[in-house]
Design goal:
- Helix content is about 40%, strand content about 15%.
- It is α/β, with parallel strands linked by helices.
- The strands form four sheets. Strands 1, 2, 5, 6, 7, 8, 9, 10, 13, 14 and 21 form an eleven-stranded mixed β-sheet that branches. Strands 17-16-15-18-19-20 form a six-stranded parallel β-sheet, with helices on both faces.
- Strand 13, helix 17 and strand 14 form a beta-alpha-beta unit.
- The protein starts with 7 loop residues before the first helix and ends in a 14-residue tail after the last strand.
Amino acid sequence: MVTTLVSTSATQLRSKLPSSLKRLADLAYNYWWCWVADQVSLFEMIDPTRWEDCGHNPVALLESVSYDRLTQLSIDPFYLKRLQALVTEFDAYLAAQNTWASRIAPQISPTHPVAYFCAEFGLHESLPIYSGGLGILAGDHLKSASDLGVPMVGIGLLYRQGYFRQRLNREGWQEDYYVDAPFDQMPLELVKDAHDRPVVIEVQVRHRAVKVQVWRVQVGRVSLYLLDTNRDDNDPIDRWLTGHLYGGNQETRIAQEIILGIGGVRMLQALGIEPGIYHLNEGHAAFCLLEVAKTEIQRTGQSFYDIEAAVRDRCVFTTHTPVPAGHDVFSADLMDSFFASYWPTLGLSREQFLALGARRLGDPWEPFGMTVLALRLCRTANGVSELHGHVSRQMWRILYPEKSQDEVPIGYVTNGVHGATWTASLLSDLYAEYLDPAWFDKVLEPSLWAKVDQIPAAELWWRHQVLKERLIAHARYKIKQARLKRGEPEGAIAAIDHLLDPNILTIGFARRFSPYKRGDLLLRDPERALKIFGNPDRPVQIIFSGKAHPADEEGKRIIQRLMEWCKQPEIQNRVAFIEDYDMYTARKLVQGVDIWLNNPRRPLEASGTSGQKVCFNGGLNCSVLDGWWCEGYLADANGKGLNGWAIGEDANTSNQELQDKIDSESLYALLESEIVPLYYDQDHDGIPHGWVKMMKKSIQTNALAFNTHRMIADYVTRIYAPGSAVDSIPSFAQIPVTSDRATQGAES
């Protein structure tokens, strides 16, 4: 058992700093700094160039900056005053005892915390172990848990090369490459025991004992533990099991999920952590249920079926996708290969074991499904929006043959975003002035957001324009660097100075380029699109960003078509694509765009959270009524949008071509008849008062509802500790009260 978890890395860094700057080390090793107002500038001021070069990594910055520069700062009264203010806030934050969670759900205790399992975590661009929405949601989940004082630990994998990096060649084709992460210069540390030895657990992968070490990342009050197989005493193949996020073949995938699930439980045991709740954020970690069951069998001496209810009572599950390909399944042969020596430890036969993950019992060709396993062995299950809950009940009804679709025990908790992470400092300062100095601590209070109407239109618009200028500057810089690396002609480099215009209506579109997300829907009628974007009097511009999975050829072709479109003379200054999308670019986009475009095929967007981030910054959504937007969109009695726009209609058709036609026509019409005229209806000072009114309505209606503080409150009061609900908190959750899970046939 680990008896101490004192940070040695922060101590070592502290020893290299001048005495008046030593507390910078404590801040650098806790990601709390990345969501506190005006926090970044404290590190950026040290050396802005180096800050950019090291990927906004405070540890790497402090390790590499010259001692002369540190000495200068150590006697700078302005800098020291800012540092002391932040340190005081930091210490008070960590020391707080009277938290929201301690008052509302004291039964969730530090001795029995929530163990939150996820395959990826997006905390900040300096820790590249995320790919997109799932990871960023998980990162925001930990941040709000920390803010609200919910005792929680995160469990994930530390990917040596993370998700792939993206570059586009001259033909616009995506090329994938990887970069080793310098863990020794990142805000994390190897967990060691009282004898200064790394904590190591073993997991069997096929017939090999793989050694797994543990790294810790501090996220405010929450610890995130990351499992890593890159050890000298492992086989070279096994060292790469935690090499890439969502890379490799089925064998790599199942091995990673064994390490995450089974290894994660063993790691918690090695650290002396006894979770009260195991929360599986998507099915990747479902093998943890088997290890929890195994531990309970060993503790009690009872059979699997005797302890099944006790295991189920401690485990909850969140599913994130209605896309069948997003649910991992493994063939029976593959399960035989990896688990033949495991199921006897559960006291199960092969048939009984495989039945735990089988949709159709008795079918010898039925694969083992991770979502199925989670649904069978978890107390509650939820989708991530109201519509997704409905779709999930329809999708998994096969497991509950005796129930109607409405009775399938899968509810929903609508996703949110961590407001402090995604709200621009310019807007945060504005909210502090007009709403409340401590606005983020009161984000769940409806009365706070009612005050948005008090913000002067000119003030809100001016700050929004500044943020748009910063976005455009970022886009130009990134695109210039990409063109230089491709060796493009001088004329193409010089043209970047004229790319995009802050006075023009700006659309943002950034997400994974999967075909169902329809990144090229705007191009369906190229001539009509050209008329909209190339209008000399009321032009429109759009900024794209995002990656296609390395194996997704169609997704890559969509990006290529967009790059070709960018080159058309009529609009070459109106369309931009930012390569190698990451959280930093994401923040610039959601903070600076006028419109956020989201046009997936309904109902394949489970929730989506990028549009929610836009709302905190006064941006407007133009989206298909899918995922969270079904709950967020507000229209008047005539069907006119009050806080954004709805694209198309639910045609209830499986004809994708027809649906694309309906939705693209709707999008063009909205741009031509509503969005563009409203934006350019400006007074003599350049303020579009009708537009600003809609911006305020977007902030009022959506910031309150679609934030992770509300989401965590729903998880705490509806799932983690049911019965502790608070009337004053708006709830966007519905969880079936039944504990009757899909166990039919598990004892066969």
